[in-house]
Amino acid sequence: MANTAQARKRARQAVKQNAHNSSQRSTLRTAVKAVRKAIEAGDKTAAAEVFLKSVSTIDRIADKKIIHKNKAARHKSRLAAALKALA
């Protein structure tokens, strides 16, 4: 356990931040799964709509540095390629 007041406070903050970041990562995974599901359904217009919302979510999470910007780019690229292959 932390010995100083400062270290105890940082430990409390770390727990709180970890919970928040975990929630954000879960949101990211849900957004990616939603696009995959829409693509599997075969409806290109619906998939394109979900893709745009997901790109916004992915970018927002990358901007907060919860995931690396390259990981965000990789997700977006793969989803866009899957959407394009649907045509």
TrEMBL record:
Xref: Gene3D superfamilies: Ribosomal protein S20 (1.20.58.110)
UniProt keyword terms in alphabetical order: Ribonucleoprotein, Ribosomal protein, RNA-binding, rRNA-binding
Keyword Calcium found: no
Keyword presence, Ribonucleoprotein: yes
Biased composition (Polar residues): 20-29
Entry's Gene Ontology cellular component terms: cytosol; small ribosomal subunit
Gene Ontology MF terms: small ribosomal subunit rRNA binding; structural constituent of ribosome
Gene Ontology terms describing biological process: translation
Stretches for region Disordered: 1-29
Family listed: Belongs to the bacterial ribosomal protein bS20 family.
Function per UniProt: Binds directly to 16S ribosomal RNA.
Protein's name according to its UniProt entry: Small ribosomal subunit protein bS20
Organism (species): Herminiimonas fonticola
